[in-house]
Structures are given as structure tokens and as C-alpha cells.
């Protein structure tokens, strides 16, 4: 690609090089993988919180029935 003004950012750096695009896409892929892991962790935390809440309510109900 030729270095037209549209291929340059505000600092004049050529942004159309294949290496730069590959780096950008690699970073995006890593960010998506991290986000997926974060969502899985949040889901696990929610499930554990739900199970703890059920157990706490069951213990409280059992305690009141005694």
C-alpha cells in the first residue's frame, strides 16, 4: 500500500502495515479471550453465591424449626 495521508495517524506513523494490523488483531483476540474467562469466572461466582444463599436459608429454616 502506498503512504497516503489516510494511511497515517495524527503523528504521521503509517498504520497500514501488515505487522501493525496483525498486532492489533492479536491484541483484540487476547482481549476477547480474557473477557470470556472473566465472564466464566463471574458466572462461577454467581453460582457459588446462589448455592451459599440456598444453604444459608436452609440452615436458618432448620434453626427456626427446632
Structure commentary:
By secondary structure, the protein is mainly alpha-helical. The protein has one helix at residues 18-65. It starts with 17 loop residues before the first helix and ends with a helix.
Task: Please give a handful of descriptors for the protein shown.
66 residues, mainly alpha, single chain, rod-shaped
Spell out the blueprint of helices and strands.
Layout: H1 18-65
Concise description?
The chain has one helix at 18-65. It is mainly alpha-helical and 66 residues long. The longest helix has 48 residues, at 18-65.
Total number of helical segments?
1
- Tell me the strand percentage band: under 5%
Radius of gyration from CA coordinates: 26 Å
SS-derived structural category: mainly alpha
What is the 3D form? rod-shaped
H/E topology pattern: H
Separation, N- and C-terminal Cα atoms? 80 Å
Low-confidence stretches: none
By DSSP, the count of extended strands is 0
Average residue pLDDT: 87
Biggest sheet, in brief?
none
Helix content: over 70%
